[in-house]
């Protein structure tokens, strides 16, 4: 692409329950009292109030990396290598991997979602996650992301096909941002207006661009500490708040 640097916020979603497959794979590889975090990278930290799931790709191989004696991160190898040069690991340039897991293995695990109105969310599959961007883990905010909304509907319609339970995917989507003309659920509204009903729709890029432009430049927060503030202002305030509580780390690539 280009030389543009993306400034992401990596959210620390602590695993509260592993899927059974993962429990078997990890047994003996990490201490019993370890904290493992799945770490989605986002460009929109102010939307974390509306998280409803965590997406992994069933076809990507992830690692579990030791960031301190008790803390471990689940992410792609590539993200770990990048973070090793951004001061996240104790030793510069080193990213000790203690286990390897396929995205497929961790589906059905439950993680804590910092700041979200739902305390815990399920890990579910998203085929379109790119291995060479962010951490390979994406947090789902169906109210404001057309990608996340279409995948949410797809998963709930075809739960068996995707090897999940329908009840893992909450369908009462939480409003978090109000926009003039699109109400408080911009992603579902745009998808309905543009008749987008699958994650493969050719219209999806256009919906994403609009959701981003309108949400970011004209949106106003409806929830949380910065309720009432414009999204443009809330973005950095929420980011700083997540960094201050050690629920997030800054990441550039
Ligand atoms: B965003 P950019 Cl509410 N593969 O976070 C595919 N998508 C990925 C990814 C990967 N490996 N890593 C991160 N992403 C998603 C929130 C959000 C995001 C909202 C609205 C728009 C939006 C909740 N999901 O992004 O290509 C993440 O989703 C619109 C672009 O680097 C991340 O921010 O510009 C965004 O894509 C990063 O995409």
How would you explain this protein's 3D organization?
This protein has 253 residues and is α+β, with helices and mostly antiparallel strands. The chain has a single domain, classed as Valyl/Leucyl/Isoleucyl-tRNA synthetase, editing domain (Isoleucyl-tRNA Synthetase, domain 2), CATH 3.90.740.10. The protein is 28% helix and 23% strand. It is built from eight helices and 14 strands. The chain has a nine-stranded mixed beta sheet with strand order 8-6-7-3-2-9-10-5-11, with helices on both faces. It has a three-stranded antiparallel beta sheet with strand order 4-1-14, with helices on one face. Helix 4 packs across helix 6 and helix 6 runs antiparallel to helix 7. The radius of gyration is 18 Å and the shape is globular. The structure holds ligand A2H. The site of ligand A2H has 19 residues, from strand 4, strand 11 and helix 7.
């Amino acid at each position: 692409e280009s030389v543009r640097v993306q400034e992401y916020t990596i959210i620390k979603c602590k695993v509260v329950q592993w899927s059974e497959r993962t429990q078997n794979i990890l047994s003996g590889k990490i201490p019993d009292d370890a904290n493992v975090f799945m770490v989605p990278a986002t460009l929109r930290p102010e939307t974390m109030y509306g998280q409803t799931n965590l997406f992994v790709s069933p076809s990507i191989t992830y690692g579990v990396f030791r960031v301190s004696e008790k803390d471990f991160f689940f992410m792609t190898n590539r993200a770990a290598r990048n973070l090793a040069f951004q001061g996240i690991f104790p030793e510069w340039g080193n990213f000790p991997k203690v286990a390897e897991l396929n995205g497929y293995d961790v589906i059905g695990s439950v993680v804590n979602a910092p700041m979200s109105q739902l305390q815990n969310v399920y890990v579910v599959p998203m085929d379109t996650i790119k291995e060479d961007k962010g951490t390979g883990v994406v947090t789902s905010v169906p109210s404001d992301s057309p990608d996340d909304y279409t995948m949410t509907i797809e998963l709930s319609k075809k739960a068996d096909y995707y090897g999940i339970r329908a009840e893992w995917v909450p369908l009462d989507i939480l409003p978090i941002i109000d926009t003039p003309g699109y109400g408080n659920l911009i992603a579902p509204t745009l998808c309905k207006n543009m008749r987008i009903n699958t994650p493969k729709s050719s219209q999806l890029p256009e919906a994403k661009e609009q959701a981003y432009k309108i949400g970011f430049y004209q949106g106003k927060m409806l929830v949380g500490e910065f309720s009432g503030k414009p999204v443009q202002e809330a973005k950095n305030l929420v980011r700083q708040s997540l960094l201050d509580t050690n629920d997030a780390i800054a990441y550039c690539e």
